[in-house]
UniProtKB/TrEMBL annotation:
<dbReference type="InterPro" id="IPR023582">
    <property type="entry name" value="Impact"/>
</dbReference>
<dbReference type="InterPro" id="IPR001498">
    <property type="entry name" value="Impact_N"/>
</dbReference>
<dbReference type="GO" id="GO:0006446">
    <property type="term" value="P:regulation of translational initiation"/>
</dbReference>
<protein>
    <recommendedName>
        <fullName>Impact N-terminal domain-containing protein</fullName>
    </recommendedName>
</protein>
<dbReference type="Pfam" id="PF01205">
    <property type="entry name" value="Impact_N"/>
</dbReference>
<feature type="domain" description="Impact N-terminal">
    <location>
        <begin position="22"/>
        <end position="126"/>
    </location>
</feature>
<dbReference type="InterPro" id="IPR036956">
    <property type="entry name" value="Impact_N_sf"/>
</dbReference>
<comment type="similarity">
    <text>Belongs to the IMPACT family.</text>
</comment>
<dbReference type="InterPro" id="IPR020568">
    <property type="entry name" value="Ribosomal_Su5_D2-typ_SF"/>
</dbReference>
<dbReference type="GO" id="GO:0005737">
    <property type="term" value="C:cytoplasm"/>
</dbReference>
Amino acid sequence: MPDTDYYKTIKKPSKETLFKEKGSKFYGYAFPVSNNTEVNTVLELVKSKHKSARHFCYAYQHGTESIYYRVNDDGEPSNSAGMPIYGQIQSFEITNILIVVVRYFGGTKLGVGGLISAYKTSAKLTLEASKIIKKTIDVQFEVIFDYQNINKVMRIIKEKNLNVISQQLEMDCKIILSIRKSKAEEIEGVFDSIYEVSIKQID
């Protein structure tokens, strides 16, 4: 991933795409995912839609700074399906995504080279049919202060247009903020400079 504080992903599942090669049909799908549980749920969904298909090949990647990815050839020759699909995920510099290509065999063998080309093309068509968006990489901070300092804290939140995740405003106050990574150090310094206000990053 590029060294920036944003990443590219897709907003919602793509439209179904269809690529044909020598009688074989390749149906392509892209889904936004953020963990392995979501991947498994989506795969079951696709399999229930195509009960008679033999191959459900896929690649997925999630994470922004630490990347997790996996590829699956699902019975096709080794590295002829999952890796070509994953290559398109890398080419589009996209994350938090699962691409599934469902193949119906058309009677003519394509050979390893033909399969690589077909799965790559199907994944590319699927990504081109997807709405790709940019999202910022954010970090969360906890701000702790006495109620008497609430006006100072709220002024900074308003001036800096900060995103409040949750707040507990009693005698002892606690606010959880989500801050864009590139601004985190600056914002942390602003809160740190206020007497009787403490701020710490949440892992």
